[in-house]
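DM from R.C. (forwarded with permission)

"hey, sorry to bug you on a friday — could you get me a structure for this? deadline for the figure draft is monday and I only need the backbone to look sensible"
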Amino acid sequence: MKKESFMSNFAKVQLEQIWQKTLQLINESAHFDDAVFNAWYKEDSHLFDIEDDFATIVVPYKINKQIMMDSIDLIQQKLSDVLDMKVSCQILLKSEVDMLQPSSVIKRRNEILFEDKVKKEYTFDSFVVGKNNREAHAAALSVCYYPGKFNNPLFIFGNSGLGKTHLLHAIGNYVKANKADEKVLYIYSEDFVTLLIEAMKNKTVEDVKEMICSVDYLLIDDIQRLKQSTSQEIFFNMYNKLISDNKQIVITSDIHPTELKGIENRLISRFSSGLSVSVGSPEFETAKAILQKKMEGRSDEIMIDDEVLDYLATRFASDVRKLEGTLNELFFKAILYNPERIDITFAKEIFKENPIVVKQEDELTPKRIKNAVCEYYGLTRTQIESKSRTKNIANARHIAIYLCRTHLEMPFAKIGFEFGNRDHSTIMSSYEKMMKLLKEKETFQQAVMQIESNLGIK
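My reply, with the result:
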């Protein structure tokens, strides 16, 4: 068994593509019947690594390994054909790979998560300031000028799509442009949890803590996702270290720190000890300025009437991403249909099926669905998000999960985060159970129809 480093020359997606082509050639060789191929090759094997001329294939069980070892020559031949080079193969169990993971691979994984993810296009110059975000913009600038002194941590909160992430990246870009000797780390909270879980699994927590505590600016996006308890414990210790060293921390969330659920009180207390500023929906003037900013450099593509900008700013001002997206859609349709200019008639025709006014509070969200289900059953959100298996609570939870999946098309994993950080398989099971109940019992059909009616869905 080869025990050198598993540092791959291929990205994960490349390995997957190579293995799928290899499996296709193995299947076409007619060496196995379909049942054997599907059971022991297609379903449970994957190409873990290719290092120089040596490939590692991973399977879950000893019987898979034995069956594949009996055909190792065929596997090596077909893999060599795909790579256009002669390679040797080893078949390992997943447990064997875990035991052989060297520090170099762990280090590389950490380095990937620490790679620069600050987006160059999100700067203070490209951020449109208005009444809705003036305080947040000023606070973001202040931490660039006076890091770790007055507003630490800086906590920026507000609904999705209003510019919180833009401000985080703007801080990162300012530091990179003006303070070359200082380190900045932008990280999404779910990536942060992944980083810490991997570190705990590989016993490298101290290394990760040292790397994070070495930065001068820690920018964490969507802190409300930091619901894993062990991760919070580690973060608490790093947070205290960074603050004591006068390192600047900037955090974003969709709600005020005091309203965070699933976050330890001691963390909420520390978040509240700095400066909390909100970002609201842009008023008409700011929304129009955002559109004008977005149009910079595009005026040669096609002319657009000022009345159209007024129309878009009035209809879509509640969400900056939606606002920018509608302008992109309008330009795309203009290229497609080639009008002489984009006038109000053309714009109204393009968006005639959109709601007249898009209000954040009127949009269908997991929170609205949970509230509607709770109102129908006389429960609280805490109850349906809890681990309780009481029949009436469990049934309400099943319906809420079903509605999130059906009407928001949310991934099971994301629904799990909304319902007490449950595993995606648990959410999938809950959804399937409700699908079955809806076919069998009229009471559930009526409940769902009434809740959908209350939500304005049907």
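R.C.: lifesaver. The chain has 22 helices and eight strands.
me: no worries. Residues 1-8, 355-361 have pLDDT under 50 and may be disordered.
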